[in-house]
Write a structure and sequence with these properties.
- With about 525 residues, the chain is of the alpha/beta class.
- It has helices spanning about 15-30, 40-70, 100-110, 120-135, 140-145, 165-170, 200-210, 225-235, 270-275, 285-305, 310-320, 320-335, 340-350, 365-375, 380-390, 395-400, 405-410, 415-420, 435-445, 455-480, 510-515; strands spanning about 90-95, 175-180, 190, 215-220, 245-250, 445-450, 495-500, 525-530.
- Helix 21 (about 510-515) links the parallel strand 7 (about 495-500) and strand 8 (about 525-530).
- The chain is elongated, with a radius of gyration of 35 Å.
Length: about 525
């Protein structure tokens, strides 16, 4: 009979009837005549008594096991090559399905009258006292025996993982927990305080994704070397070492290169990715809008000239936009049928310096003549008009408007980091690989991204969020053009598994669309964070 109310914290009284029945069975076997029974009947009765005693003994043992589990944490270890994986399910570890029974059991366990069940036993406490008292003495070797994590050691210390053992102890029978892969497009949140094993769980999930053949992209703000080594080892074990890419802001001499603003479906994305890193509170919101238009004008001009925008180029033109104005206007006028002979006209043009606005007096004479020619002829081009408006600002006023942009770009273009996020396509001697997300998806790549946030939080945030924007843009292109967009004919449809450790340092406006709208493009995201 199944009782509606459990009482698993009582004393195991089942051992008493079990002992009585075992004794009675022994008596029947040894002296059947004492019970006035023929031997055959006595033996048959003894078998029944033994079976009943065994049943009661199992009940009592289950009770003892349950109570013992409330204050111990059995060690569970799994070799990397032994991690199970499936094409249809995701292995999460050992555990059980929590229901109302476990909630009630945990509540009962923490009642004051049962506190002794959660406290270590007398021998356990004595062993810990002994270890502390002999530390640093000749008897320290004896303490090593009590500290050993062996099956024969009844006073072995608990694994150093912290937490409440009773949470696992309320269910004696744990089993492997699997999740259907079809549920992963709804994404996964792993929440836990520091040092509870979030990154180790990430290793288990990443290992399975690599073996399954997924495109695997891992964002690690801290730059965990163990996670990096595990990913590379699993890529080699799965025969995918050639598909592995390593990007790390802390190791620029070894890292692959990536241009966060070089790939886009709309040129306006470049300005959005950069200005999203700027402060938007108070007056910063107005400045951010101006900076967006400023960067967008430069990006449109560079794209029209056949150049790939980069942090380095934008920083260069933010400090001196005149070369870009000259290059673009010359490019435009050479193709405008209304500007035939414009070079000769400009050469013959005379400019009175006294008639110039204050903002234009310090400009290059060639730029001044060019702008005067365009205005005099009534010529118009949207990009040229944007550049001309920018160049007409008085220098001190302009510097105030872009005051928040220049420091950010300086951080992104200083030192060896600039070689990673603003790669020079013309350098044939630089053998560090260069990747983009569409190429990674096409080849079925594995990418580890170490942002080195502990060294420079702002640079890590700017690069990480630009990568998220690029991934979201890539998802949009896949949505519009189909799952095979940008891929070779031989490329198979692949799931795109994205893992973001320390998610609280990465979450921003760029990541939210990735979570909300990219499931249809095959993106499945797992995020790991300490705070809700």
């Amino acid at each position: 009979m199944a009782y509606p109310v459990e009482n698993l914290l009582r004393r195991p009284v089942e051992f008493i009837p079990a002992g009585v029945f075992f004794t009675a069975a022994l008596g029947l076997v040894l002296t059947p005549e004492t019970f006035l029974l023929p031997p055959a009947v006595a033996y048959l009765a003894a078998v029944g008594l033994v079976l009943h005693a065994g049943w009661r003994l199992a009940q009592g043992s289950r009770l003892v096991r349950y109570q013992a589990n409330l204050k111990r944490l059995p060690r569970y270890s799994l070799a990397s090559e032994a991690i199970p994986w499936s094409e249809r399910a995701l292995f999460l570890g050992m555990g059980f399905h929590w229901d109302r029974r476990h909630t009630q059991r945990l509540y009962d366990t923490h009642q004051p009258e049962h506190r002794e069940l959660l406290q270590p036993g007398m021998l356990y406490r004595a062993a810990r006292r002994l270890e502390r008292s002999v530390e640093g003495t000749l008897f320290d070797r004896l303490a090593r025996i009590s500290r050993s994590d062996a099956w024969w050691n009844p006073v072995a210390p608990l694994p150093p993982v912290g937490g409440d053992p009773a949470i696992h102890g309320v269910e004696p029978d744990e089993d492997a927990v699997w999740m259907d892969l079809s549920e992963r497009v709804g994404h996964m949140l792993v929440l836990g305080t520091t040092r509870v094993g979030k990154t180790r769980l990430a290793e288990i999930l990443i290992t399975q994704d690599i073996r399954r053949g997924d495109v695997v992209i891992v964002f690690d703000p801290k730059g965990d070397a163990d996670l990096l080594k595990r990913m590379y080892a699993e890529a080699r074990r799965a025969g995918r070492a050639d598909e592995f890419h390593f990007f790390h802001l802390g190791y620029p001499e070894l890292s692959a290169r990536y241009n966060p603003v070089g790939s886009f479906s709309r040129v306006t994305e470049v300005a959005t990715r950069i200005t999203n890193q700027l402060p938007k509170e108070g007056e910063g919101a107005n400045f951010a809008q101006f900076v967006w238009g400023f960067v967008n004008a430069m990006s449109k001009a560079m794209t029209a000239l056949g150049r790939t925008p980069s942090y380095q180029d934008i920083y260069h033109y933010a400090n001196d936009i005149e070369p870009l104005v000259l290059d673009y206007c010359q490019f435009w006028l050479d193709r405008d049928p209304c500007a035939v002979g414009w070079r000769e006209d400009i050469e013959a043009l005379e400019v009175d310096p006294k008639s110039l606005d204050r903002a234009m007096k310090n400009r290059d004479l060639g730029v001044i003549k060019l702008l005067e020619y365009i205005r005099g002829k009534g010529l118009h081009d949207d990009t040229a008009a944007s550049l001309m408006k920018i160049i007409s600002y008085e220098q001190s006023y302009f510097n105030k408007l872009v005051a928040s942009l220049i420091p950010l770009l300086e951080k992104l273009t200083t030192g060896k980091v600039a070689e990673l996020v603003s790669p020079d396509m013309g350098r044939l001697d630089d053998r560090r690989p260069l990747f983009d997300w569409m190429g990674v998806i096409n080849r079925g790549g594995i990418v580890y991204v170490g942002l080195d946030a502990l060294t420079d939080y702002e640079v890590a945030g700017a690069v990480g969020n630009s990568m998220f924007s690029d991934l979201t843009s890539t998802a949009g292109r896949i949505y519009k053009h189909g799952e095979t967009y940008g891929q070779s004919a031989a490329a198979a449809k692949r799931r795109i598994s994205i893992h973001a450790d320390e998610f609280n340092e990465l979450i921003g406006d760029e990541f939210i669309p990735l979570l909300n709208k990219a499931g249809g493009a095959g993106y499945q995201v797992a995020v790991y964070t300490q705070t809700w």
